[in-house]
Amino acid sequence: MPTGNYIRQNSVKTRLAAGLAANHVEGFLQWLRERQYTPLTVIERERLLACWTDWACEAGYAFETIRDAYKASYTLIGSGYRSRFRGDLHKDAVECAKLFIIYLETCKVLDSLPAPTEPALLVEFRHWALEQHGLAETTLGFYLHVIRLFVAYMGEDPTTYTAATIRAFVLERGQNVSQCRVKGIIVSTRSFLRFLVATKRCPSGLVHALPRSANWQLTSIPRFLPDAEIERIIDACDGEHRLRDRAIILLLARLGLRASEVARLTFDDLDWSQGHIRIHGKGRRLELLPLTQ
To answer: How far apart are CA 32 and CA 106, in angstroms?
Structure first.
């Protein structure tokens, strides 16, 4: 029969009560619930916050320096830090800390920081991307995130950019991230370089300085729902209060629209007399599709 003394691992709530977020945990969890986070997600965010506050306290940070703690943890993860044990600092815990700080700013516990001034080069690129290429806000947001890092690395004078430094940026940012992320970094950087070429700020050859991203994967059959499952989902949207849900499912299933295309639809896009629907696709492209029965 086993004998001896055993120490029970501290619970999440006990760890949070001893950490720098102790006075604001319950308010944070309620804030998440009010924003329609599922119960399981709220529990997971609570656990992640405990992981982050454990690290912050161990590193010597207090509530008064919570932003400094977040910056330090973000930098640490970005440098390739690996969790040493279950409950140690990791990427998801740092993301939860960011959400916690947003909550504190929303509740006026922390003063909101003034928005950083965007370099004129990025302001001009944003206007160019929207007007000339019709990029969606979500796509442009990702591009700008990468380009801010690029400009911080390379400087704001495009005449000093070289093929070697451009490759060095991509190789550095491509460490410890997925192939899909690397591809996104390359696409974003290439778009910015094309803008610089179009506005005669750098030679056209620099666009070709970017390395190609290998993205090999085994070919597999695309995942899909059987017809019976689709019909079951459609039938579940019964009653007048579910008509909008039913219409969305039908547009996705019968016309094969993207979620973003469905989100942009208005009643003006429906032409009942001609029997077609106007779709706002990528790059502001308009398409007419027949209305199904």
So the answer is: 12
Measured CA to CA in angstroms, residue 79 lies from 73, 82, 173, 233 at distances of 10, 9, 10, 45
Strand order in the sheet with 270-271: 270-271, 276-280, 286-290
Phi, psi of 43 (to 5 degrees): -60, -40
Long-range contacts of 72-78 (CB under 8 A, 24+ apart): 73/97, 74/98
Quickly tell me which residue has 């922390």 as its tokens.
110
Per-residue confidence (pLDDT) for residue 264, from 0 to 100: 85
What whole-number distance in Å separates Cα of residue 135 and Cα of residue 139?
A: 6
Instruction: Locate the DSSP E strands across 197-243.
Output: none
Q: Rounded distance, CA 58 to CA 19, Å?
A: 10
Arithmetic mean of pLDDT, 159-166 = 93
Report the C-alpha gap between 148 and 143 in whole angstroms.
Answer: 9
**pLDDT tens digit string along 211-259?**
777 666 666 666 778 888 888 888 888 888 888 888 888 888 888 888 8
Task: Kindly tell me if the per-residue pLDDT of 208 is higher than 80.
Answer: yes
State the DSSP string of 44-56. HHHHHHHHHHHHH
Q: Measure the CA dihedral 7/9/13/16, to 10°.
A: 100
Q: Tens digits of per-residue pLDDT, 7-38?
A: 345 688 899 998 898 999 999 999 999 988 89
Provide the pLDDT for residue 1: 45
List of domains in the chain: 12-106 (no CATH), 120-209 (1.10.150.130), 227-290 (no CATH)
**270 beta partners:** 277
What's the rounded Cα separation, in Å, for the pair 216 and 183?
12
